[in-house]
Amino acid sequence: MEALSFAHLAAGLGAGIVALGAGFGIGKIASSAMDAIGRQPEAAGDVRGTMIIAAVLIEGVALFGEVICVLLANK
């Protein structure tokens, strides 16, 4: 196997790990937010806004990681 093949394999594994981590993180945030809204329904708007901001930040980091993996694979 050539070095370029290993680079492509590593980039694919890295992109998969990034997607898995982001999905786990967003799921954990949503779960915690639903628990918080269930306990305090009057704070639902604040909790929802905070949850969306955190999810967007995680999505941004995941997108950054995926782009880095693609760039490393095509280097």
Instruction: Classify the secondary structure makeup into a structural class.
Output: mainly alpha
Helix content: over 70%
How far apart the termini lie comes to: 17 Å
What is the number of beta strands? Answer: 0
Main beta sheet, described? Answer: none
- Reading the helices and strands in chain order gives HH
Characterize this entry briefly.
With 75 residues, this protein is mainly alpha-helical. The chain has two helices and no strands. The mean pLDDT is 90.
Descriptive notes:
The chain is mostly helical and 75 residues long. Helix 1 runs antiparallel to helix 2. It starts with a helix and ends with a helix.
